[in-house]
Amino acid sequence: MPPDMPVLPARERRRFLLLTLAKAGGATLVVLVLYYVLPIDKIPDGLLFLALAVELAVLAFVVGWQVRRVLRASTPLLAAIEALAFTVPLFLVIFAAMYVGLAANSPANFNVGALSRTDSLYFTVTVFATVGFGDITATSQLTRGIVTVQMLLDLAVLGLLIRVFFGAVQRAWSTREPAAGTHPTAPEPPSGAAASDG
Questions:
Q1: I need a labelling partner for 25 at 20 to 30 A (CA). Which of 14, 66, 159, 197 fits?
Q2: 51, exposed or middle or buried, with CB in 10 Å at 0-12, 13-18, 19+?
Q3: Could you tell me the residue range of the domain that residue 155 belongs to?
Q4: How far apart are CA 137 and CA 60, in angstroms?
Q5: Is the residue at 155 inside a domain?
Q6: pLDDT tens per residue across span 69-127
Q7: How far apart are the first and last CA of the chain?
């Protein structure tokens, strides 16, 4: 069990926060670079669903690993922020990659024909944010089914992931409360003091 986080001066707190933001930004950048570099548009049509299943399994593994990280971290709240900053972009990129593959295999899957990777990421984020501008729409039954799955999972990501990660923060803090209780604010009277008062 890591020791309790000591009370830090303002400068150290700022340093921890900046380090957390840098890690979160770096994790997001890695996910985006992989999205733009990997040959996701070359996946055969018959393997798209297998690829999606594998990617979602990887996401579930990452969530479990991040929860363990939060529970063991010396700063659980900052670790939870890092976890969300990595997990949410990964979730979005998984579906954006699926849409890239669907558009590459059949231009009839979307109203605009072929989608670039940026188009797919943009479409995924508009679905995730429930904006739905309508400039890119799913036109085939298959693609509409995938978009429906994403919309249902969006609710889980917004609700469940936040609850899981910050629940891990509360659990990490609660396991450290007894350690904090070993430093009482007022010293106990010495033994026998009560008897001498009488």
A1: 159
A2: middle
A3: 18-35+44-177
A4: 28
A5: yes
A6: 888 887 787 788 888 888 889 999 999 999 998 998 888 899 988 889 999 999 999 99
A7: 45
